[in-house]
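CORE FACILITY INTAKE
Project code: CF-77B
Contact: R.S. (postdoc)
Sample description: multi-component assembly, two entities in total
Requested service: structural model of the whole complex
Turnaround: standard
Below are the sequence entries exactly as provided by the requester. Do not edit them.
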Amino acid sequence: MSNITDLKLVELVDKIKKKELSSAEVTIAFINRSQKSKKLNAYIYENYENAIKKAKIFDQKPDFKKKLPGIPIAVKDLFCTKNIKTTAGSKILENFIPTYESTVTQNILDEGGIIIGKLNCDEFAMGSSNETSYFGNVQNPVSENLVPGGSSGGSSSALAAKLTPATIGTDTGGSIRQPASFTGTVGLKPTYGSCSRYGIVAFASSLDQAGPMTHDVKDCSLMFQIMSSYDTKDSTSVEFKRENYLNNLNENIKGKKIGIPKEYRVDGMPKEIDELWEKGIKIIKENGGQIVEISLPNTNYALPTYYIVAPAEASSNLARYDGVKYGFRSKGENLIDMYEKTRSEGFGDEVKRRIMIGTYVLSSGYYDAYYLKAQKVRRLIKNDFDEAYKKVDAILTPSTPSSAFKIGEKLNDPVSMYLNDIFTVPINLAGLPAISIPAGHDKKGYPLGLQVIGKAFDEQSILNIAFALEKNISFKNNITDWWIK
Amino acid sequence: MTIDLKTVKHISKLSRISIDDNKAKKLGKDLNSIFSFIEKLNELDTKNTEPLSSIAETTLKLRKDEIKSENIREDILKNSPDKNKDFFVVPKVVE
């Protein structure tokens, strides 16, 4: 048999159910490989001993009705895990041990999943390269000194390097789809309200959404089905009947109308990405789908809107880190001094930058000019999608305007870093679901992704379209294990 | 529009984040480049557009006002950087 860690999630579940593999065997295999892969710096916290114990307990009395029977899984360190350290990639939460479990990780535990560790990410999920993490840069297994994307960079790296059979991330402006695209993996940002936000360290509450990151669309459908649930602990959780996304998965896209937005052909986009997009269009046509030219006229305003809305919400959400009830505290001469020093020493530069942008756009005299203006433009962006969906079932675009870049390359230019998210941010503003799948390589050999955007709560359609694309593209990730000596 | 050093200092005060002059200068530069990028929104006429504050435009559900977790005082105090019996401790605020 091939290596256990080479198997995909659905295959592992199947082998455990058929008793060809035990949970302990699988868990130990992924832990062994993780231990050999410290150079990637994908983990912030390793829960190995505990995980092996849990796997052995599972094997003693296995419940094969579970959807993740004894499956080991590492998760982004933005999900609160009961009695397991949760840092959000920040010094300010370096020693924080939650006394409660996030709903999404609880759903995974309820289906038999075993948490093997917490994965590195940009501090408070603010970044596109994992370079803002207090716990250091993460290596992209595709090539040395290449960023794995962000903010779910530890997740994408660990998944692509096969340290975990699947993982979960969060996506506020592209933080699942961009790292998936940079590492040749699949990432789904579900519709706002599909997965509970309870117990996820908050960044921008009107945009944040958790989602799966996997090797293929099948695995993605299984994980999404487990993660998505109605939750009274999240006031924006939406009550609707969740489908069996995996059982309903099929590659028949005959008659589906797929929109191609002309505004996504941005200046200076590498030729390879345009060719990739053409390849996607060709596959859809060959499989009986119909291509429709559409317009999303306010696309260019999405990033400026995002960089008002997200920091504004972040400045409010991060006001709770004051050094009083939990987290890092610095000494101060008085209470105010203690707050100011705690926050100055506890937060990294990008987080401070965003808190200050947010504070400014919400401050007296500027609220109308910036924050209210951005909320109005957000409406226009959402209206663009509403108009488009009168004519099409889904939309196809590239996932990112470039492939992965070198560590350090964009660190001193925040605006150029922000431009990474140009194709992903509009979807968060409109609250829609979107999936990124690996679709090819650029001339450097780095992976590139295609994005399929759906109607609200119509994840099944984009999973199906992605499934059809995946079948025809047959992408191969050429990762050489260069980090293992 | 440019954000001067005085404004940067004022925002840092509002944000409860102390910064020294050197950092403030660098931050001022970053904020100016970000805000010149944000200014693009002024090209759009939004006089008759309603603001969109949340995608989930549903009315919040009512629920019973009942206690769901009890006796979690220890849990709540567990992560505190400084505590005294059942209290969080902070620097003195009254003389």
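Facility notes:
- The first strand of chain A starts at residue 43 and ends at 46.
- Chain A touches chain B through 66 residues (CB under 8 Å).
Invoice: internal transfer
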